[in-house]
Each structure stands twice: as structure tokens, then as C-alpha cells.
Write a structure and sequence with these properties.
The protein is an alpha/beta fold. It has three domains: 1-42; 70-278, P-loop containing nucleotide triphosphate hydrolases (Rossmann fold, 3-Layer(aba) Sandwich), CATH 3.40.50.300; 283-457, Ribosomal Protein S5, domain 2 (2-Layer Sandwich), CATH 3.30.230. Helix content is 25%, strand content 27%. The chain starts with a strand and ends in an 11-residue tail after the last strand.
Length: 458
């Protein structure tokens, strides 16, 4: 039995609750993000939805038995990598991203693999499409088995009853912004509805030991409650990144209670759905110019996977008193810092030039190991000198111009060697560790500071 508790103000971006309206959210710092919504207090409701509501008894931590949890393979290697090895039973996973990025397509492909290969019972709940519309998308992806069930409804109370009756292994909720709890009087997509709906699904997942995937849309206008409201409630948060008008997609874990948050999965959007990109380095370097100044290849580590990237820089004389600085794919402030180091330590007058820095392929990387590659690209474009296409560089730059050591150098060199690179510029501090491994046939050049980098342009 629900009874009204009045109203409260919620931040649409992060879910911060306040008793009065605020111009700026203390939680996330957004302006004009508070909306007023009725608050419902549930009376006389225990820990239902399948979770034992009897008298609780604490247990000693030493008495809790641990068993190796068997993960369910999705049949999509890139997705398994990001999840930490597969689906954990009883886990609640939030998949966020811009509309049209491919969230529903990826989850429908996962359902197909689970049904066809693993003989699992899967329930796909859609609050946005009809059965025929989901069927049309499924036909484009491929033939599905008999154990994939569809339910097109938005009433979460009725959906909960269906889940309890069907007893599926995996449930997909597409999307959480369309779900409605009858005991909440606010409209679908509001902060109160989204939080209460997620809490209900959380109780179902833990009580029935089933895996539930929730789709959450992100809009630039912030009209509906963003997935950040739910991040503290779910076990895993996956974000789909990339321009929906481009062909590639990057799946990244920003929270994972059952695995690493450093892994990424790379996909390419094709006519039959999302295709796994097994070798992201080859994909990111596709179309790289051979004889062009301002182009340098570097290597970033994403979890356990080295990924080769092309850094592009364009330096040209400014037509105004204030030079323009533009950075795409890497941190803007970091680029300004590196340009200040070049100007101070090398005496190059970059203040007279507009600077445009780009990570080719549209991927976003903020790893400090890219510093040396960015500096080489800037100097190359400024001096209009070409760096050989078989050369790769990585290292962190300090404010005094020193090239500092980085981690996992051997993995980066091995990946570069596989892609046909023959010369590598690394921090001198890493040379000793490289020589200990001693298996690479590449020409390794160590640099102590950015002054030594200038010899590559003589």
C-alpha cells in the first residue's frame, strides 16, 4: 500500500535529491537540472520479489563459503572481454549510450548467441517497439532459436510477474526510461520512475539469480533521467561510444563489480548488425598517410590490449592576435601543457601558430604515454618534416622536458612489431627493461628529454 509523502526536487543528471529547488546541483555541478516530482513512501512492504523476507541473521565473514562462479559466455568475444569473462548470474548490467548508437542491436545479437549456442532461455522486454518491429531487426541479424521470448509492455509490475512465471536465464529491458511502476504517480522517464524501476529489477535479479541487462538512453538535452542516476544501483555499467554516423563503436566498462574497468570492445556497424573488430590496431591505422608531416603513430594500453593510434597535428600561422587551439580525441589542457613545454624548452615560437590535434579514428584517449607522440606530431607539422611511417613513439613528458618511463613497454613494442613497424622511440628509462626481455628485432631508440627528439628532424 503506497501513501504520498509530498514532493521533492531531483537532479535530472545525477539523481541528487533536495527538499527545495536549487539553481546548481551540488552533486554534479549542472545548472537548471532540478525538477519537482512526487515522492512515494511504500508502507508495509518487505524485501519481496523473490528475496527471503524472513527474520535476518548476520553471519561471520570467515564462515561465508566461496565457490568459483561459472560465467555464461555470450558468444561475442568483445562483449565477454568487457564484462570480465562473461555474464555473471544474478548480475544487473546497465548499457548506456546515445540513441541510435547500437545498444539494442548488440543485446539482440547477444540474445541470439545465447539461444542458439548455449540453449538458454532469454526474455526480451521492449517498451519502445512492437513484436513485429523487434522481429524485423532480428531477421536482419540472423535466425534465432525457439527459447527467445518477446514481451512488449511498459508496466513493470506485470513484467515482474511474467519473469517469475517464465524463469528465464537472461532478461533484457529496452529501455528503462519507458518502464512504469504503478505506485509512482510521475510520468515514465522521470527520476522517481527510473530509480524505482531499477530497484525492482535489482530485487528480481538477486532474488531469482537471473542476469538482467538494462538499456539506458542519454540525450544531450537531458530531458529524461540519464543512466548516471542508476550507476550506484547496478553491478556493471557499460557505455557505447562513437559517432552513430561512423562505422566503428567502442564498448567501455566504467563500473564492474565482477571484472576490470580498463577493457574495451571494438565493433563495426555493418548491414547485418555489429561485427567484432579482432585487431583494433589495424582498424585504427587504416588509411594512414605514408609521406605527410604532422602524422605520428603511437600506442595506448586499454586494459590488457595494446592499441596503435595515429596522432595528427596541423600547425599554421594565425591570422589573429590570439592563436587557436583545438584538440579532438585527447585532453585539451594536456595539449596546451605540452605546447608550453615545447616553447619553453626548445624555443619554438608556437604562440604564433594555430594548433589542431586529432586522434584519427575518433577514439578518445587520455593516457600520458601519448605525450611523446603528440610532441613529435606538433614539431613535425611546425617544421614540415616527415617522420618515417615505420616509426612509432610513446612516452610521458614532464614539465622540465624530460621523457619519463611508462608501463607495459614490451607489450606495446610487440604489437608494433606485428603491425610492421621497424623503429621505436621510447623513454631512456625503459631501455634496461627492454634489453632484459631482448626478443625484439626492432631498432629501439631511447630519449631522455625532448631536446634529443630534435635529432629526428635534422
Amino acid at each position: 500500500m503506497a501513501k504520498s509523502k509530498g514532493s521533492a526536487f531531483f537532479c535530472k543528471e545525477c539523481g541528487y535529491e533536495s527538499s527545495k529547488w536549487l539553481g546548481q546541483c551540488p552533486g554534479c555541478g549542472e545548472w537548471n537540472s532540478f525538477v519537482e516530482e512526487p515522492v512515494v513512501k511504500t508502507a508495509g512492504k518487505g524485501r519481496g520479489n523473490g528475496i527471503n523476507s524472513e527474520r535476518l541473521h548476520p553471519v561471520k565473514l570467515s564462515e561465508v563459503s566461496l565457490e568459483e562462479e561459472e560465467r555464461v559466455k555470450t558468444g561475442i568475444d568483445e562483449l565477454d572481454r568487457v564484462l570480465g569473462g562473461g555474464i555473471v548470474k544474478g548480475g544487473l548490467v546497465l548499457v548506456g549510450g546515445d540513441p541510435g548508437i547500437g545498444k539494442s542491436t548488440l543485446l539482440l545479437q547477444m540474445c541470439r548467441q545465447l539461444v542458439n549456442n548455449g540453449d538458454r532461455k532469454v526474455l526480451y522486454v521492449s517498451g519502445e517497439e512492437s513484436n513485429k518491429q523487434v522481429k524485423l531487426r532480428a531477421q536482419r541479424i540472423g535466425t534465432c532459436g525457439e527459447n527467445l521470448y518477446l514481451l512488449c509492455d511498459v508496466n513493470l509490475d506485470g513484467i515482474s510477474e511474467v519473469i517469475k512465471e517464465l524463469q528465464p536465464d537472461v532478461v533484457i529491458i529496452d529501455s528503462i526510461q519507458t518502464m512504469i511502476c504503478e505506485n509512482i504517480s510521475s510520468s515514465a522517464g522521470s527520476v522517481s520512475q527510473v530509480r524505482e524501476s531499477t530497484n525492482t529489477l535489482l530485487q528480481l535479479a538477486k532474488g531469482m539469480n537471473i542476469s538482467i541487462f538494462i538499456v539506458g538512453h542519454v540525450t544531450k538535452e537531458g530531458v529524461v533521467a540519464g543512466p548516471r542516476v542508476l550507476e550506484h544501483m547496478v553491478d556493471t555499467v557499460l557505455y557505447f561510444e562513437g559517432d552513430r554516423h561512423a562505422s566503428y563503436r567502442v564498448l567501455r566498462a566504467v563500473k564492474n563489480r565482477f571484472g576490470s574497468t580498463n577493457e574495451i570492445g571494438v565493433f563495426e556497424m555493418a548491414g547485418t548488425g555489429l561485427v567484432e573488430v579482432k585487431n583494433p590496431s589495424e582498424y585504427m591505422l587504416k588509411g594512414r598517410p605514408e609521406d605527410a608531416s604532422g602524422s605520428v603513430t603511437t600506442c595506448s594500453i586499454e586494459g590488457t590490449r595494446p592499441v596503435l593510434l595515429e596522432i595528427q597535428a596541423l600547425m599554421c600561422k594565425t591570422n589573429f592576435g590570439m592563436p587557436r587551439r583545438t584538440s579532438v580525441g585527447t585532453d585539451y589542457n594536456r595539449v596546451n601543457l605540452l605546447m608550453a613545454v615545447i616553447e619553453k624548452r626548445l624555443g619554438l615560437h608556437l604562440s604564433e601558430c594555430d594548433a589542431y590535434i586529432n586522434i584519427a579514428g575518433g577514439i578518445k584517449v587520455n593516457e600520458p604515454a601519448l605525450d611523446l607522440g603528440i610532441i613529435l606530431a606538433i614539431i613535425s607539422s611546425y617544421k614540415d618534416k616527415i617522420i618515417p611511417s615505420n616509426t612509432i613513439a610513446f612516452g610521458e613528458i614532464g614539465l622540465s622536458g624530460e621523457v619519463r618511463a611508462i608501463s607495459q613497454v614490451s607489450q606495446r613494442i610487440t604489437e608494433a612489431e606485428k603491425m610492421g613497424f621497424t623503429q621505436c622511440i621510447v623513454p631512456y628509462a625503459n631501455i634496461e627493461k627492454i634489453e632484459k626481455n631482448g626478443n625484439s628485432s626492432m631498432k629501439i631508440t631511447g630519449v631522455r628529454n625532448i631536446g634529443e627528439v630534435l635529432r629526428f628532424f635534422e
